[in-house]
Design goal:
21% strand, 216 residues, 3-stranded antiparallel sheet, 5-stranded mixed sheet, alpha/beta, 2 domains, single chain, D-Maltodextrin-Binding Protein, domain 2, 40% helix
Length: 216
């Protein structure tokens, strides 16, 4: 909060719950029922311990009363390989990393986080649409952003903001970013600072209240 100076967001992105095709569930409720019927036998992969994908799986367990076992990986690629191979049954991963696998019918996507459906995956519902009362994980829309060292002079921050916002308003750049299933969103440095502070409080409160550790 002190060592970095906000410039602007780049955009927002979403995570999805994905399943191996052999899992006999076609929706989130069916998956919850299946996990409960197989206690201790269902594994979910994350991009690594302490990442949003780890956090979302732990939140899902708490919200649904399931006991999926966490398997940390090192990035999206090995998670997706083991998901297809059946070494893990589920994962929470970014929509862009799983889009081609889903469109090729190699995995199932049950739902996405965030306030609205992914424009690239219009047939996949949001968790909120399902009305399963899954708590804060439903609204988990994450962002990429630009930050500078905390002591960067304000005039430099303003100039960086202007240059980056101008670049992100370029139609060709926006199209390339949209192809990564990122919804372009820009802010003033002050607006971005408020977003960071709100997210820091929202997720910090949840993490502390649930006792998460990096080894969970």
């Amino acid at each position: 909060m002190k060592d970095l100076a906000p410039i602007t967001r780049l955009g927002n992105f979403q995570f999805a719950l994905a399943l191996n095709n052999a899992v006999p569930a076609g929706d989130v409720k069916g998956f919850v029922d299946w996990v409960k019927a197989n206690p201790g036998k269902v594994n979910y992969g994350s991009l690594s311990a302490g990442t949003p994908s780890h956090f979302l799986g732990a939140m899902f367990n708490r919200a649904t009363g399931t006991d999926m076992q966490h398997v940390p990986y090192k990035g999206s690629a090995p998670v997706n390989i083991d998901l297809q191979g059946g070494q893990i049954q589920a994962t929470f991963n970014t929509t862009v990393s799983m889009m081609e696998l889903y469109k090729g019918n190699k995995i199932k996507l049950l739902a996405v986080t965030g306030l609205s459906r992914s424009p690239s995956l219009p047939d996949v519902p949001t968790f909120k649409e399902l009305r399963m009362n899954l708590g804060p994980m439903e609204d988990a829309e994450l962002w990429y952003g630009f930050l500078a060292p905390g002591k960067t002079p304000a005039p430099v921050i303003r100039e960086l903001n202007a240059q980056i916002v101008a670049a992100l308003n370029n139609p060709d750049i926006r199209r390339q970013i949209a192809n990564l299933d990122i919804q372009v969103a820009t802010d003033t440095p002050e607006e971005f600072a408020r977003i960071i502070a709100a997210d820091y409080k929202r997720w910090g409160d949840v993490i502390r209240s649930t006792g998460f550790t990096l080894d969970e």
